Amino acid sequence: MRNETDIYKLFMKIANADARILAVYMNGSRTNVNAPKDIFQDYDIVFVVSEMRPFIEDKDWLHGFGHILYMQYPDEHPDYPGNKEHFYGWLMQFDDGVRIDLHVESVPHALEHIHDDKLCRILLDKGNILPPVPEATDADYYVRKPTEAQFLACANEFWWCTNNLAKGLWRKEMPYVQDMANAVVRKQLEQMLSWKVGIKTGFTVSVGKSAKYLCRWLEKKEYQRYLDTYFGGNVSDGWDAVFLMCEMFSQTARTNARELGYGYDTEEEKAAFSFLKHVRNLPKDATDIGRISK
After folding, report:
1. Could you tell me if residue 292 is inside a domain?
2. In 73-173, alpha helices (H)
3. What residues in the chain have per-residue pLDDT under 70?
4. Domain range holding 34?
């Protein structure tokens, strides 16, 4: 596998050999001092070019980066058409393990958008066409302190959508349960745990995409409990995991509310718990849900 120095030299070689490439900059995890370094980090590279179309139409030039194992053209996706006049990219996995997410960008687009991402580092600027950029930082990705309205909305979304988990588990519709659990309910738990980290750190850290860095800030046992909320296709395991999610959300939300000085609807929580318990004990041949008591 080529090392970082090899890849940077390759970028400079290709850019310096082509007069149409005016500047090169990088963003993403390799500019983030807080991101862990490992063999799977990709290279997020942008070539600022004098003309876009030749690079898009002549794909042979991409082989100069190495032997491509497979790749994706995100801007060619029929449902997500890109702006080919100003920004276009290729996601390339090479056979030696290196991955490069490469974009070409027009000068006007670069001048307008280079400051959009603070994780930016200029590698080459032949004619000083790019404005100065500050030292790369992941500050844009820090956990943000919620307003009280945002906090209450998160709690309401969590507890309301456990209703869908209950009916999905009772029906044994596990694909629906998994989708609802991971795409909706878990996102609220993720958010509440992220706010806990924010409170702990003064809202000066990022927990990463999908809160993948929660392990850095939660106690070991608490993080393991969070991992235990993931479940497979077994209905009984699903029920256990859902109740664990609820217990974690309840504990975290109450603590966060106290620390932030916000309100928290404990009656809503109690009602949602009651519904879950009632449905879990509901016979599979039930013809009526019956009355739910708190």
Report:
1. no
2. 107-113, 148-171
3. 81-82
4. 4-140
Contact partners, residue 175, CB within 8 Å, separation at least 6: none
Last residue of one domain, picked from the residues 140, 172, 205? 140
| Per-residue pLDDT, 212 | 95
DSSP state of 20: T
User: Around Cβ 156, how many Cβ atoms within 10 Å?
Assistant: 14
Q: Write the pLDDT tens digit of every residue in 210-250.
A: 999 999 999 999 999 999 999 999 999 999 999 999 999 99
* Chain mean position to CA 20: 34
Contact 27/44 with Cβ under 8 angstroms? Answer: yes
**Is 152 found in the same domain as 29?**
no
Residue 214 DSSP SS3:
helix
163 and 223, same domain (yes or no) = yes
Q: Do 191 and 146 sit in the same domain of this protein?
A: yes
C-beta separation of 113 from 172 below 8 A: no
Overall number of domains in the chain? 2
Task: Look up tokens 């009656």; give the residue.
Answer: 267
| Residue 12, number of CB atoms within 10 A of its CB | 13
In the numeric block, the tokens 């070019």 are attached to 49
pLDDT in tens, 147-158: 999 999 999 999
pLDDT of residue 96: 96
Q: Determine the Cα–Cα distance for residues 262 and 276; give it in Å rounded to an integer.
A: 26
What's the chain's Rg over C-alpha atoms?
24
What is the H or E stretch that residue 49 is in?
strand 43-49
Quick check: 165 and 242 in contact, CB under 8 A? yes
